[in-house]
Design a protein that fits this description.
The complex is a heterodimer of chains A (183) and B (188). Chain A is α/β, with parallel strands linked by helices. Chain A has a single domain, classed as Rossmann fold. Chain A has 8 helices and 6 strands, in the order αβαβαβααβαβαβα. In chain A, strands 2-1-3-4-6-5 form a 6-stranded parallel beta sheet, with helices on both faces. The radius of gyration of chain A is 16 Å and the shape is globular. A 6-stranded parallel beta sheet of chain B has the order 2-1-3-4-8-7, with helices on both faces. Chain B has a two-stranded antiparallel sheet with strand order 5-6. In chain B, helix 7 links the parallel strand 7 and strand 8. The longest helix of chain B is centred in the C-terminal third of the chain and has 14 residues. Chain B starts with a helix and ends with a helix. The chains are: A alpha/beta (183), B alpha/beta (188). At the A-B interface, strand 2, helix 3 and helix 5 of A face helix 3, helix 5 and helix 8 of B.
C-alpha cells in the first residue's frame, strides 16, 4: 500500500485514550486516516477488533457489547457514519445505547480528494439533525480529555456521541509540502 | 411446511439460559405470546442488525450461548453481516433465520427468497461453518438441538408459513425490555 502521511504519534494518543477509558472492543472499516489505529487494535491482545463489511453492522455489535457490559468504540469515515444512520436512529437511539463513534472527518478544509467533499459538507449538519453531541479532535493536547468527556456523556445520557477526527490531528503533511494538484 | 410459532414453541425449553435476540414483528410477538423471559431481547426496529447484536454479545460473553431469531426480510438487509459472522466465527452463536419468503408485517410482499435466493447457501459461501435449510418441525428441532451441542457458529434457515399474529404490538415497553435484558446479562 502507498505510504500515507497519517500521524502514528497522534493515532497512538487516540488509541491510548480509548483503552484508558476501558474500551475493549472496536469495530472498524479501514480508511486511510484510520490505518494506524486499526493496526494498534490488531496488535493489542486486550482488544477485540471487529472488521466490518459495512459500518452499520458496528452499531449492532456495539449495542450487543454494551448490553453485555463491554465498552466499545466505532472507527469509521464520515461516509461510514452516513451509511450507519438508520442503525444509529433505530437501534442506538431508540434503545438508548451509549455509542462512542470516532469519525474521520474527510472533506473539510484542505481536502484534495474531490470524492470526499460532499460527505464532508453534510457531516456536522447530520450530527446536529440527529441530536448527537459531538466535538473535534484536532490537537493531541486535548485528545485524551475530550475522549474521556465524550465517554462520560455517552454513559450518563445513554446516547450516542461522536468525535470528529480532524485533518490537523491525523494528517502530517503540511500544505506547503505538496501543492494542490489542480490550479 | 411448519409455522414459526410452533417452531418457537418446540425449542422454547432450550432457551431458558440462552441469550436470545429476535427481530421485530411476528417473531417478537410470537415469542412473547409463548412467554417473555428476562433473557429475551426484541430488536423492534433496525432491520438487519439482530445478527450483528448477537455477534456483539457473543464476542463480549464467549461463555454464554447466544441465539438470534432472524427473518428473511431482515437478513437480506445485512447480507454482508454473514461475512462478519463467519470471519469471527463465535462458537457460541446459533443464528436461526425464519424464512417465510415475504415481508409479512407490511402486507406480505414476496422477498428474493421467493424467487430462489438461498440464504443457507449465502451463509455457507460467506464462510459460516454449519448451515442447513429445514422444512419440518422435526427437522428444525433436531437442527437446533444439534447446533447447541455442536459448539460452533450455525445458521439454520427454517422455511415457515407466511402467517403470523394479528397484532405485533405487545405490552412490553421497548426500554423496559432493554434494561431488564441488560441487567440479566450483566448479572450472569
Amino acid at each position: 500500500m502507498p505510504r500515507v502521511p497519517v500521524s502514528v504519534a497522534n493515532s497512538r494518543v487516540i488509541y491510548d485514550a480509548l483503552t484508558a477509558g476501558g474500551v475493549r472492543l472496536m469495530s472498524a472499516l479501514p480508511e486511510t486516516w484510520l490505518v494506524h489505529l486499526i493496526r494498534m487494535a490488531e496488535d493489542d491482545p486486550g482488544m477485540t477488533l471487529v472488521r466490518l463489511a459495512k459500518e452499520e453492522e458496528g452499531v449492532g455489535i456495539s449495542a450487543g457489547a454494551h448490553l453485555a457490559g463491554v465498552k466499545s468504540a466505532m472507527l469509521m469515515q464520515n461516509h461510514g457514519f452516513l451509511a450507519s444512520i438508520n442503525g444509529i436512529v433505530s437501534c442506538a437511539q431508540l434503545y438508548r445505547i451509549p455509542l462512542l463513534m470516532l469519525i474521520s472527518y474527510r472533506g473539510e478544509f484542505g481536502e484534495r480528494d474531490p470524492w470526499q467533499t460532499e460527505g464532508g459538507g453534510v457531516t456536522e449538519d447530520l450530527l446536529r439533525a440527529l441530536r448527537i453531541p459531538f466535538s473535534y479532535l484536532d490537537d493531541p493536547s486535548h485528545v485524551a480529555r475530550r475522549i474521556h468527556k465524550a465517554q462520560t456523556l455517552a454513559q450518563s445520557a445513554t446516547r450516542p456521541v461522536a468525535l470528529l477526527l480532524c485533518r490537523d490531528l491525523m494528517w502530517e503533511e503540511s500544505e506547503g509540502q505538496r501543492p494542490p494538484d489542480r490550479p | 411446511m411448519m409455522r414459526r410459532a410452533d417452531a418457537l414453541a418446540a425449542i422454547y425449553p432450550r432457551l431458558e439460559d440462552a441469550v436470545v435476540v429476535t427481530i421485530m414483528g411476528a417473531v417478537a410477538a410470537e415469542l412473547q405470546a409463548i412467554g417473555h423471559r428476562p433473557n429475551f431481547f426484541y430488536l423492534q426496529h433496525a432491520m438487519g442488525l439482530a445478527s450483528s447484536m448477537g455477534l456483539g454479545i457473543a464476542l463480549a460473553r464467549p461463555e454464554k450461548q447466544v441465539v438470534v431469531f432472524d427473518g428473511d426480510g431482515s437478513i437480506l438487509m445485512n447480507l454482508g453481516g454473514f461475512t462478519t459472522l463467519a470471519r469471527y466465527r463465535p462458537r457460541n452463536l446459533v443464528h436461526v433465520v425464519f424464512d417465510n419468503e415475504s415481508l409479512l408485517s407490511v402486507g406480505g410482499f414476496p422477498t428474493a427468497t421467493s424467487t430462489g435466493s438461498d440464504l443457507a447457501g449465502i451463509a455457507a459461501a460467506a464462510g459460516v461453518p454449519r448451515t442447513s435449510t429445514v422444512r419440518t418441525l422435526d427437522e428444525f428441532t433436531r437442527a437446533f438441538t444439534d447446533a447447541l451441542s455442536a459448539g460452533d457458529l450455525t445458521t439454520i434457515v427454517a422455511k415457515v408459513e407466511a402467517v403470523g399474529p394479528s397484532v405485533f404490538v405487545t405490552d412490553l415497553a421497548l426500554l423496559e425490555n432493554r434494561f431488564e435484558f441488560q441487567k440479566w446479562l450483566r448479572q450472569r
